[in-house]
Amino acid sequence: MDGLAHQIIAGIATGGIYASVALALVMIYQATHHINFAQGEMATLSTFIAWYLVTEGVPYWLAFFATIGISFVIGALIERILLRPVQNAPPLTHVGVFIGLLLIIGNATGWIFGYTTKVFPTPFVSDRPLMGGLVSAHELGTTAVTLVVLMLIFVFFRYTKLGLGMRAAAYNPRSARLVGINVGMMLALGWGLAAAVGAIAGMMVAPVVFLDPTMMLGILLYAFAGALLGGIDNPGGAVLGGFAVGVLENLAGAYVVGTELKLTVALIIIISVLLVRPAGLFGRVVLSRV
Amino acid sequence: MNTTRRSLLLGAGAGAATLALPNLAPAQEAPGVTANEIRIGSTNALSGPVSSYSVISRSHEALFKRLNEQGGVGGKRVNFIVYDDGYQPPRTLEQTRRLVEQDRVAFCFNQLGTPTNSAIHRYMNQRKVPHLFLATGADKWANPREFPWTIGFQPSYRVEAQIYARYILDQKPNAKIGLLYQNDDFGKDYLNGVRDVLGARFDAMVKTATNEATDPTIDSQIVQLQGTGADVLICGIVPRHAAQAIRRVHDMGWRPMFFMTNVSISASVVMTPAGPEKGVGVITSDFRKDQSDPAWANDAGMNEWRGFMRQYLPEGDQNDNNYTYAYAAGLTMIQVLRNCGTDFTRENVMKQATSLAPLELPTLLPGIRVQSQPTNYNVGRQMQLQRWNGRSWERFGNIIEGASV
Amino acid sequence: MSSATGLPEGVAAAPVPVAEAGTPAWQRLLLVAGGVILALAPLWLLESFHLFQLTMAVIMALAVLGLNIVTGYNGQISLGHGAFFAVGAYCTAILMSHFDWSFWWTLPVSAAVCATVGFGIGFPALRLAGHYLALTTFALAVAVPQLLKHKAVEDWTGGVQGLFLVKPDPPAFLPVTPDQWIYLVVVSIAAVLFFLTWNLIRGRIGRALMATRDHPTAAEAMGMDIASLKTKAFAVSALVTGIAGSLSAVAIEFVAPDSFTIFVSITLFVGMVAGGVASILGSLFGGLFVLFVPNIAESISKAAPGVIYGIILIGLLFVMPDGFAGLLRRLTARLRRGGTS
What we know:
heterotrimer; B: Rossmann fold; C: two-stranded antiparallel sheet
């Protein structure tokens, strides 16, 4: 029974990682109605920027917020430079652009910063291990940060004019334009915010999994799974989904099929859920009119 | 235009000076060899998720540049051509065929990866193109009877795992072993090596768990292995996961006899990130000097390598142990070329590569020599056990030769 | 002898789709003849390495065509077609290396297995739309290497070490090298499948596929069985991509889990977008793109070829948002207009 508890705790700790990245995915979906396959790579790049700042002697929190700012600008620029020219192209072309972006950023990061595993500092330190060494102070801190970001996003999209405008621009650009929303600006802002949330996720994840150019490769798939499980249009659902994937994956690996297939089984469970609830556990069912 | 003419003149001058015209004749007929150049090919993952290994090719380029500046070998400069295969076996075949059929290289050297080299294993042997010193630790390359044209380089992971298993039987005959390995050819060799030694006792003594290279964390596997009551832990995993494992095992208060693959023991990339004090007691078996280990701070061989890095690869990350590996492989290649004299035919290159007298290299541990015999293609076959003391690796016991395990 | 003379007719089919139904007979004949020459010319013009590259490009084109059937024409986004590619390759490899089957006999088995798997995937796909389907298929492709390595099937698939096989020898009466023979085999099989797909798409079924993509409700109202159409589209699509996988297995003579990572699926998707979504000729261009552009990228920069590849891809999509086929369509339209004015 001890083993089971340990697996669940370890799963929740890992799930926190998935949750924070899933949140970034939902964020960009809310703001642009795209699923950005380069999200993981962008977050890794942001984390490397933070790492560079910290190794150059910038204090942690200053580097933290500077990175968020830089990432925001990078995200907005990507929208302006890369997405704007193809905004009228078929949706599959957008996926093509995202893949191109993934290739560029993914390969450039290692080329610029080197490939060796790097230590990324954490602001949350404790002297002794918590819960039998299964959870670190950092992992608790990460969860707290994720929840704070979640709350901010919720308030932002629900109650601020800007947030509502962004959602409108993504959901129905034509009508949004008619009511006087600057759709282009909103999309750029959305990309900027998504990149910023991704940067936070990256900086929270890096101390646990260690920083290297492929850090997000594996995480992104689990984060996608978490976001889909919870509902891609529901930030809270995505966070819960992330935690659920972390726990499910561990339990499947430890008790069901062995570790060789733990990814496969976790995915099968998620797909089964989607078959019953195609919009995710907490997603809104969208009815389309003809 | 200018350079061509100059090198032509140089070549003619060299020929006239030595008056060794009869010797030049076979060299000119050999594929990939011209009057003043010898072409060597390679493939590596210059793009994609495992492009961290691309630095190996960068190092070879720099090393051959230094060789050419020092006058080349056998009166010829080396033209080293490397192509990107993205670690995809079909691309490796394509790029290798480009090297052999279009660029007409004399031979291929230090191509990266097990699945990738598998895809060209037969092609190289059918074509009788030397397939030298592969950058992979699989143990299937030393098979002179079936594949006489292929030869590996580093000691195989399987032999490394055999060494650990031997040591465990010696020290803790009733050990309960937890084995964590990456679910690919690299990790599976640790499973095979341990099984080789334990034989029928394997199932009773060993509990295994696997991870994928892309898994974000391996906490679940560690928890699982601890839960089996294991008092020995062997890990065949990549550096990022190794650092996680060392930290997690320590934080959980688990104190097994802990073996870590020599792929993941760099002081700067694994031990320091994990927390140097958390890895105290971890055992490995290596053939290289670790450049970030203070023990080698003033070592003559390592200083030679550092000088090379400063001069030829100033941008290179000196903490990356792929560079020290590449330096050793490159020097071995150059030694083989020197041994060829002026005869760079494929037959002679292969003959020299498979009859290499024991050779000490600046970035390998003292006493460890690379060598080959026509009947034994295990070039790197020696290792030594070492234990982490919180600051650096302490070697203990004798140098172990893989074949004798 | 009849098979030798029958070959060029099949080969010709690939470039045919340019011809519209209203084209006069002599023009069509000319196009067919041109296609045959175009497809066979490399046999004499290219040395073995470039012929091998072209063989691989045709294989990729065929795989992209498969993806185009379900994603381009039927609108079900699949990011996991590498999985079907792998299933096809492994079918052929297992039958050839464990049972000594001839390559030709493995093809129908591979086709049947892939179609069945595709049909099976098609059912859950019915419930999922858009991004959800894309990510579910993506997950499928991620899981494939894991499944191939699993203990339960290791004896068959060769586990992490993969399987070796030998490509078929040319028949004694044909004076061709093994490289030329495999090119002929690949081109003829691809031509047959391109021709059949073209027939399927321009007929009743093709119109139904596109109708379900563009106006599902209207299509249903007109009496189309959408569920059956969509699952069958998945099956046909998987079949075509699976045959491409079989061909790649014999052309490379080796299969391993690492040959079928998620990057195969991404490559196929890139090929479809670059060539042109919902275009048969575009698939051909897509195959050429994914095979040759990485080499071009590499010749530009050895330092970071992946970055250059990404830049080329995005640049191409800027210039041709609807791919190569879209550009061709617009050029033809302009020529036509120019011709009538």
